Amino acid sequence: MNDIQLPWSFFNIHGLEFNGQISFLKAGLYYADHITAVSPTYAREITEPQFAYGMEGLLQQRHREGRLSGVLNGVDEKIWSPETDLLLASRYTRDTLEDKAENKRQLQIAMGLKVDDKVPLFAVVSRLTSQKGLDLVLEALPGLLEQGGQLALLGAGDPVLQEGFLAAAAEYPGQVGVQIGYHEAFRIALWAARTSFWCPAVLNRAA
Predict the structure, then answer these.
(1) Average pLDDT score, the chain
(2) Does 187 have pLDDT greater than 80?
(3) Alpha-helical runs (H) found in the chain
(4) Which of 35, 51, 53, 81 has the smallest number of Cβ neighbours within 10 A?
(5) Which residues contact 174 (CB under 8 A, 6 or more apart)?
(6) Domains of the chain, start order
(7) How far apart are the first and last CA of the chain?
(8) Sign of the four-CA dihedral 52, 54, 57, 58
(9) Residues 186/155, Cβ–Cβ less than 8 Å
(10) Model pTM?
(11) What is the C-alpha separation between 39 and 164, in angstroms, rounded?
């Protein structure tokens, strides 16, 4: 306690102490005015022992007090709108979907994919981890490509998965495009161009 310049009165069950140690996580949960989780479902789940890892008593108390809630992920339609986004090669609406084709063409060119407005283009924007199901994408990829599909991937993470997707891009030129890293403008272009979006997470806290 001396090292973090707090009085020893904070080191108790109603403070920083957790299993005889200082827990900054518990301190945050205890002293927060309000706790938010990534979804209402997950807010309920973390009050249960199998998800709370010893913090269930505190989290259950905060739930009873109305100080624990879940806020489901969403999008700001003023920003995430293909009708107004200035970063798109071609803006479109639900009534002008034919204008979406130019976004697809530009993305195919940028990612080294065969330019074809009829081919289904599958997109992945994600951290490359098994938790996000990216190993499943690699496993399913040959079957997708055999049926004429294309994959455009933007992300970074597990070096093994990164190498796996880069190897797939080399093995299937014109069908697989991979961009390691994260670029906001590229993400917007990919979202606007894709036929379908893949998000095969094994564990999704925002459920």
Answers:
(1) 92
(2) yes
(3) 24-31, 40-45, 49-52, 56-64, 101-110, 134-146, 159-171, 184-193
(4) 53
(5) 112, 113, 114
(6) 2-70 (no CATH), 97-197 (3.40.50.2000)
(7) 38
(8) negative
(9) no
(10) 0.72
(11) 32
